[in-house]
From TrEMBL:
The keyword Metal-binding does not apply. The chain crosses the membrane at residues 34-55, 62-84, 90-111, 118-137, 157-177, 184-207, 244-263, 284-308, 328-351, 383-399, 405-425, 437-456, 462-480. It comes from the Bacteria. This is Amino acid permease. It is a multi-pass membrane protein. GO terms for molecular function: amino acid transmembrane transporter activity. It comes from Streptomyces aquilus. PANTHER family: CATIONIC AMINO ACID TRANSPORTER 4, INNER MEMBRANE TRANSPORTER YGJI-RELATED. It is found in: Membrane. Keywords: Membrane, Transmembrane, Transmembrane helix, Transport. GO terms for cellular component: membrane. The keyword Transmembrane applies. Coiled coil: none annotated.
Length: 507
């Protein structure tokens, strides 16, 4: 039984599957498109909200260092993702990488995890976008009915019509084509980056050196809000992370990590990239470098404009300009934040549909969802299904307390990808690798340890919810996926033994 659970799908077979006409995605993306996708999904709620929260509660002006720490953790994982994405340029990201290195069951687990991560991330950001738009509408004198604004009306009914509408519109754009999605993203990213640059450039003129004193505030112990709310590391080792001080920077890093979520989504578009061997590493590493630089600059400027103890925890960038008497900048920043969140939703939704598509193409989910649209060459069936489900979830469910599940799901994927790089180097040293992760196995091991460290800093309640989702995933796999897998049905045999299948088809 163990041999079937850990059967691997050869890299050559994965690539051959992408050449089947009815299951092949259109190759239309360049390195620039990938970088724009990465920047578009990374810069979002994190930089517009979390800067004030962690500065005020965890790190003070040293929040800039927290962004650096989180960026380093992501960079370690990004180097591993870059090798896999250029070596196995197939839709599915960490799911496909795991299938080639760790086996079917680990691949299923990580695929199931990514479905949760991207779906929940899309819904959370859609609700956040709805809040910005509702605020802008209120300022213009247009007020949504209580029952359609996400708040319970007089009869107890509440539906967030704006959040649901955003997800459905983006679903339609993704069905029409990835290149169209890239064009829309490029326009929105330009607006979003402009807003961030305005904060950096304009805010630099209002920096006061006294606001940086002390740069690293004196350490204070964390007050746990109950056993389940305590970080897992506190319950396991009896050690509580600190607010402020040097350790407060690491505590803050586990929070601001949310601001970096999304660069791994770039890897899900590998199959739709014209030259993945060259462009995937550029897109992944380039977008991460750009965003880390902007994050550090913004945090330095904002904590210099206003004392960290006075920063807003809901809209720190906009409120910092209000505090110094420049409300116009505050309105501009709020508008840019609302516009920018649309690309975050779109690219998270794109990533999820590609993982779902790859899993269905392998038979672990119904093959009905593995067919592409005859005209647009997009996985329209899973895109529509997941878009409708997420729209309903975003409309009805208050998701703020579940947002940390996105963090733990992403970090878990980082761990699996890093381990996969080590294993594939040993089992398939013959594979052509246009990009090689440096210092293997040292760097992937560091990536695993860094990701686990941030995971341990998440509340125990988050771990319990994550475990519940994984248990459900095991049930689905053993009741359906294991017996319907193409590997289980023998459809993948005889391929990848050094002979290319005729016409690129495994059958």
């Amino acid at each position: 039984m163990s041999s079937t659970l850990f059967r691997t799908k050869r890299v050559e077979q994965s690539i051959a599957d992408t050449e089947e006409p009815e299951h092949a995605l259109k190759k239309s993306l360049s390195a620039l498109d990938l970088t724009v996708f990465g920047v578009g999904v990374i810069i979002g709620t994190g930089i517009f909200v979390l800067t004030g929260t962690v500065a005020k509660n965890n790190a003070g002006p040293a929040v800039a260092l927290a962004f650096v720490v989180a960026g380093v953790v992501c960079a370690l994982a990004a180097l591993c993702y870059a090798e896999f994405a250029s070596t196995v340029p197939v839709a599915g990201s960490a799911y496909t990488f795991s299938y080639a290195s760790l086996g079917e069951l680990p691949a299923w687990i990580i695929g199931w995890d990514l479905v949760l991560e991207f779906a929940l991330g899309t819904a959370v950001v859609a609700v956040g976008w709805s809040g910005y738009i509702a605020s802008l509408l209120d300022n213009a004198g247009w007020h949504l009915p209580e029952a359609l604004s996400g708040r319970d009306g007089a009869d107890g009914f509440g539906f967030d019509i704006l959040a649901a509408a955003l997800v459905l519109v983006l679903t339609g754009i993704l069905v029409l084509g990835t290149k169209l999605s890239a064009r829309v993203t490029s326009i929105v990213v330009a607006v979003k980056v402009t807003v961030v640059l305005v904060v950096i450039i304009a805010g630099a003129f209002f920096i006061k050196g006294d606001n940086y004193d002390p740069f690293i505030p004196k350490s204070q112990p964390v007050e746990a809000g109950g056993d389940l709310q305590a970080p897992l590391i506190q319950l396991m080792f009896g050690w509580a992370p600190s607010n402020f001080g040097v350790m407060g920077i690491f505590t803050a890093a586990s929070v601001v990590f949310f601001a970096f979520i999304g660069f791994d989504v770039v890897a899900t578009a590998a199959e739709e990239t014209r030259n993945p061997q060259r462009d995937m590493p550029r897109g992944i590493l380039g977008s991460l470098l750009i965003c880390t630089t902007l994050y550090v600059a913004v945090s330095i400027v904002v904590t210099g404009m206003q004392k960290y103890t006075d920063l807003s925890v809901t809209a720190p960038l906009a409120d910092a300009f209000k505090a110094i008497g420049h409300p116009w900048y505050a309105g501009f920043i709020s508008f840019g934040a609302a516009v920018g969140l649309t690309t975050v939703c779109m690219i998270l939704l794109l990533g999820q549909t590609r993982v779902f598509f790859a899993m269905s193409r392998d038979g672990l989910l119904p093959r009905f969802f593995s067919h592409v649209h005859p005209r647009f060459k997009t996985p329209h069936r899973p895109t529509i299904l997941l878009g409708v489900i997420i729209a309903i979830v975003a409309g009805f469910t208050p998701l703020s307390e579940l947002a940390e599940l996105v963090n733990i799901g992403t970090l878990f994927a980082f761990v699996v990808v890093a381990i996969g790089v080590i294993i594939l180097r040993r089992t398939r040293p013959d594979l052509p690798r246009s990009f090689r992760t440096p210092w293997v196995p040292v760097l992937p091991i560091l990536s695993v340890l860094a990701s686990l460290w941030l995971m341990l800093n998440l509340p125990t309640e988050t771990w319990l919810r994550f475990a519940g989702w994984m248990v459900l995933g095991f049930l689905v796999y053993f009741l359906y996926g294991r017996s319907h897998s193409r590997l289980a049905r023998g459809e993948e045999t005889g391929v990848g033994q050094g002979v290319k299948p005729p016409n690129g088809s495994p059958e």
